[in-house]
Structure formats: C-alpha cells, structure tokens
C-alpha cells in the first residue's frame, strides 16, 4: 500500500504525516511524531496502555488506523501538561501509591481523566467498572481507584 498524507491535530498542533492509512495510530504517534508517552502493550485493544484522547474521548490507539483519524483531534499524555484535572490526577496517583512500573500509567491517566470529567458522582464500584479496560499488573488497582476517588471528592468539595 502507498503512503499518503494524513492530517490531524495532535496536542493542539496541526500535523500532516505520510503514512499508510492502515498504520495504527499508536505507531504513527510513536514512530513518526516521536510521542513515546503512548505505550503499546497487547496490540489488540485489550490492555489500555495505548489509550489516547480522540476528539475528546478515550480511544485505543493500537487498533485505530491512522487513516481513520484524518482531521481528528488527538491528545496524547504529553498534551495534558497544562490540564488542571490531569495535574490533580498526577498528584493523587503519587500520593495514593498508584504508580509502580509505570507502563500502564499514561493510558490509565487518560482514562481516569475521562472518568473524573464524565462521571463526577462516580463511586468506587463505578470507577472500577470504568477502569475494566485498563490493565495493570503491578498495583492491584487499589491505589489507582483511590487516586481517582480522591480527585472526584476534591472536585465535589469545591
């Protein structure tokens, strides 16, 4: 297949990249744009390590073809540096010991941010349900869940 220009907005910046349309978004982000915060785990959309935001919603970049993202707004973990919700989550992840090896963390944080913004009244059971698509082999999820609940509680209090 031939490479063709694919135009998208990544972390607020317009990008046009020559790639085969069937190239996975994760490979395009990592290999062409050098945004290595997006991790590739299972390459089947099961583990969630590759989760990025596509047009405002979490998506598995390892199974999403770059050609299908023509004109889309993509936000990787690197694109959340100035985001106040992400800052609160990073602080809570640290305080609640939700980090170990860190491989799942970028995808976990993108999913956690979505939970906080979309489900402000979520309880522990709902947070766990929402995290079901993100696998972590190190933490046992307790710290991750507590970190998200902490941010939810802080936001409710303000």
Q: Could you name the key traits of this structure?
A:
5-stranded mixed sheet, 5 helices, 5 strands, 36% helix, single chain, alpha+beta, 158 residues
Order of helices and strands: EEHEEEHHHH
Stretches where pLDDT is under 50 for at least 5 consecutive residues are none
Category from helices, strands and their pairing = alpha+beta
CA gyration radius, whole angstroms: 16 Å
How many E-type strands? 5
What general outline do the C-alpha atoms trace? elongated
- Helical content band: 25-40%
Strands side by side in the biggest sheet: 2-1-5-3-4
Taking all residues together, what is the mean pLDDT? 96
SS summary, helix count? 5
Q: Largest sheet at a glance? A: 5 strands, mixed
Description:
- This protein has 158 residues and is α+β, with helices and mostly antiparallel strands.
- Helix content is 36%, strand content 16%.
- The chain is built from five helices and five strands, in the order E-E-H-E-E-E-H-H-H-H.
- The protein has helices at residues 25-32, 84-95, 105-118, 124-130, 142-157, and strands at 4-10, 13-19, 51-54, 57-60, 73-75.
- The chain has a five-stranded mixed β-sheet with strand order 2-1-5-3-4, with helices on both faces.
- A hairpin with a 2-residue loop joins strand 3 (51-54) and strand 4 (57-60).
- The model has no long low-confidence stretch (mean pLDDT 96).
């Amino acid at each position: 297949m031939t490479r063709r220009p694919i135009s998208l907005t990544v972390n607020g910046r317009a990008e046009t990249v020559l790639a085969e349309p069937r190239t996975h978004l994760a490979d395009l982000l990592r290999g062409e744009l050098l945004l290595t915060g997006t991790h590739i785990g299972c390459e089947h959309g099961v583990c969630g390590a590759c989760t990025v935001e596509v047009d405002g919603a979490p998506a598995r970049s390892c199974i999403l073809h770059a050609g299908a993202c023509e004109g889309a707004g993509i936000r990787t973990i690197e694109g959340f540096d100035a985001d106040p919700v992400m800052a609160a989550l990073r602080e809570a992840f640290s305080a609640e010991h939700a980090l170990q090896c860190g491989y799942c963390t970028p995808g976990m944080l993108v999913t956690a941010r979505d939970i906080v913004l979309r489900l402000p009244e979520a309880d522990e059971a709902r947070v766990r349900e929402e995290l079901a698509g993100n696998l972590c082999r190190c933490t046992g999820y307790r710290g991750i869940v507590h970190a998200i609940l902490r941010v939810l509680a802080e936001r409710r209090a303000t």
